[in-house]
Amino acid sequence: MIHRWSIARRLFVANLLIVVSFIAIVGTAAYVDARDRTYDEAGRRMGGVAAAIAANPLVLQAAATPNPSAILQPYAKDVMAAADVDFITIMAPDRTRWTHPRDEELGRPYIGSIDAALQGHAFTEVTAGTLGPSVRTIVPVKDGTGAVKALVAVGVTVRNVDVAFAGRLPVLLAVGVALLLGGSLASWLLGRYLRRVTRGWGPEQLAQLFAYYESVLHSVREGLILIDTRKRVVMYNDQAAELLGLPETGSNDPTRPPSLADLPLDPQLRSLFESGRATKDEIVLAGSRVLVVNQRPAHGPDSPGARGKVPVYGTVATLRDRTEIEALGNELQTMRTLSDALRAQTHEHANRLHTMVSLLELGRTGEALDFATQDLALSQRLTDDMVSSIDEPVVGALVMGKVAEAHERGVQLDVSTLGSGAPAGVAVQDLVTILGNLLDNAIDAAADAPPPRRVVLTLEADEEGLDIAVNDSGAPIDPADAEKIFRHGFSTKPAGTGGRGIGLALVRQAVQRLGGTLAINGRRGAKFQVFLPAAVSAEKEHRQ
Predict the structure, then answer these.
(1) Contact 298, 229 (CB under 8 A)
(2) Mean of per-residue pLDDT scores for the chain
(3) Are strands 412-419 and 454-461 parallel, antiparallel or unpaired?
(4) Are 370 and 310 in contact (CB under 8 A)?
């Protein structure tokens, strides 16, 4: 049954038991201390009364007479009434009573210890006498030579002492009840807080839930990162560590989570995490990866006393790697470019065939033959230029497709190569990404500009690497936008245009990953210059 209790109930019961035990221990100690103090106070008061009586000369004078009781008995009763004591017994050194509250006890021997008093010392004891148990103090009466001539015993019954002690019990009881109520109230408030925080779950349920969450955290293929309100990374899973280049999970001290500023994060990604804003499928370029980020606040449980203000513990962000998808998208875009080029060529070829057929139907065979020969020579020359200048067939096909696309949009695309035009050991996918996006942006800019619309592509390859320059006749780029233009999401295209703000960001990402440089210049239009260093072969590296 206890296993079903929540943490709040267990803490309440445990704290209540501790308070009750504390009150029992402290109450018992206080009770014993108060009782001892009451008896000590009674003994000190009896000692003061006895010492005052022993110092009175009347006692020595009466002790020297044949009948001391006749003088001392009235005196003792007066003092008893004034000092509020139960008995005053003045006796001879041989225990014979000279005074007593009861007249019939006069002349009888005193019951109790008198040895210390006979030696000249006062002492206090609790013993039973004719009036019952009592707290009494015995003081010797000495003459001028120091001889003990009489003894004075003053006492109060234990019953009266207990009555005085009982007067202190309500205070002790009130203190105990106050501690119990205060401890119970503190336990209830703490239990209420824990019940709200833990949602009424017990430790076994929380342990099981934590095991489930930890298993899910490390088994999902998406990166997951938890950030608190102080911009500290509370937790992240293995996939997030791999995507963001973070230390392995479990290597950090959980009591001292690292801040976002201490982690090697991309500035754009760090800015997104620090903002805490809600995002859905936002694309962020982080190093060599293209990440899709979803982020939302982590709200605490709602409670009746919160008045609609739900606490926010931080943010939860999920990361998906879209690098391979973007690579496939670039390849698909290349295929679309080639398809568009084939469609454009097919359209032009159909027009030319109609022209030649019409010339043949008109009987102008020579003119039809000359037209076909010139068209074939023009197409062959363009193909030969591409094949001879660019060694990589995929890149050559891409450029030919862009030439046809530019021609269809009324833009002249000129290609110039220096050297072999080889890709300098760079992966074809990266070249397609860089060339394709640069040419797409240049063709768009030239197509939107007034005539003459022209784009010039220059490729120069040597042992050091590959230089790529793309110059268009479009509108020049504002120097203030020279750095912003490479950021993801920034675009000079009108709103609603597809693929806004992604092309040049992917170009810069690919160039940085390959260790190259990217620059913008040109007074007329825009000129993008890219340098990609040549890959060092294993043999050359061994020689160095």
Answers:
(1) no
(2) 76
(3) parallel
(4) no
